[in-house]
Description:
The complex is a heterodimer of chains A (107) and B (113).
Chain A: E1 4-7, E2 10-14, E3 19-25, E4 32-37, E5 43-49, E6 55-58, E7 61-66, E8 71-76, E9 85-91, E10 96-97, E11 101-106
Parallel strand pairs in A: 2-11
Antiparallel strand pairs in A: 1-3, 3-8, 4-5, 4-9, 6-7, 7-8, 9-10, 9-11
Chain B: E1 5-7, E2 10-13, E3 19-24, E4 31-37, E5 44-50, E6 53-56, E7 65-68, E8 75-79, E9 88-95, E10 103-104, E11 108-112
Amino acid sequence: ELKVEQNPLFLSMQEGKNYTIYCNYSTTSDRLYWYRQDPGKSLESLFVLLSNGAVKQEGRLMASLDTKARLSTLHITAAVHDLSATYFCSYNNDMRFGAGTRLTVKP
Amino acid sequence: EAGVAQSPRYKIIEKRQSVAFWCNPISGHATLYWYQQILGQGPKLLIQFQNNGVVDDSQLPKDRFSAERLKGVDSTLKIQPAKLEDSAVYLCASSKWDVYEQYFGPGTRLTVT
């Protein structure tokens, strides 16, 4: 069965701390996407990872892809309150999404 | 550049009624997607169009859901008849081609009573 598993599903962290969200997927894929969703809002594209070893960074977020391990990570550096949202990963085979990681950053 | 447009934004219907949603993708985007997002879950792909052809509709409940994309631009998604479990947000997204990132519309929140 094709699956995308994210962990943790819920993450509460303090401002200024670092943390990593993990995305495991069950079949080979050469493209992996990360999205952000604010409460009551639609999804916003964050990163598109197109090949093994790809690393992309935007502000305090950095995403990487290991296609051999079928693993993508989203690393948060020095978290700030504005990063509070739900983060989804998705891969291209059938546009299957993970369940999402609900991140809350506390002062 | 204008984003993905969807209407209506909210809809409340009774079970067994019909409902239709409309989506206008970003100009020039060949690929269009419809997703169902139930509260607290990730989006679930219902159907993917490439221009006006269907690429993937394996998760579309075809006994009650239908979708079309006329002339490779706008698209409509219809539910007939609706069930209580269809209550969800229906998201439309588009991309230049299927390998590119998707741009999502604001969604239509459907409540079936």
